[in-house]
Amino acid sequence: MIHHLSVAAADPQGVGQFFADIMNGIVVDFPPNPGSCMVFKADGHGTAVEIYPAGSVMIPNGEPGAIFLRQPEALGRSPTHFALSVAMSQEDVLARAQAKGWDAFICDRGGHFRVVEVWIENTWLVELLPPTFAAEYLGFANAVTEMADPNMALDDHQPQARTLENA
After folding, report:
1. How far, in Å, are 16, 57, 71, 122, 163 from residue 74 at the CA level?
2. Can you tell me the distance from the alpha carbon of 88 to that of 86, in angstroms, rounded to the nearest whole number?
3. What is the pLDDT of residues 92-122, one digit of tens each?
């Protein structure tokens, strides 16, 4: 189980408020990296998202633990994303993304399950799973773990033609 993860944003507090809304959670300041916040969901699992200012990087610092530095921001794009189950409808998710001015789409993942793609700050992706989508995802994920050859699970989920283009 992943308990928390971190992401970067141009407006950490605004992104934090968005996550608190869709997760039914709370936002707290994250002092180890000034300007950051952390969103906790009271689910008994410690589910949380840390949101750092764009350009933040973590570097090792021995036993005292990692430290944060800021580096000039790249284009803001990243292959890092995550899927998050939410207790609201796909329509409510889309409305909240639209209210922020962010792109959001209902997408089919190879006929296995659906997600609501929300492009946070129109830069990076989070896949939100309303209850029916979460059930589809869990059914698929559980089936993969029981397959004789789980490597075949995604064989029919091929890249889109543009995937092979240079960015």
Report:
1. 21, 12, 9, 15, 20
2. 6
3. 999 999 999 999 999 998 889 999 999 999 9
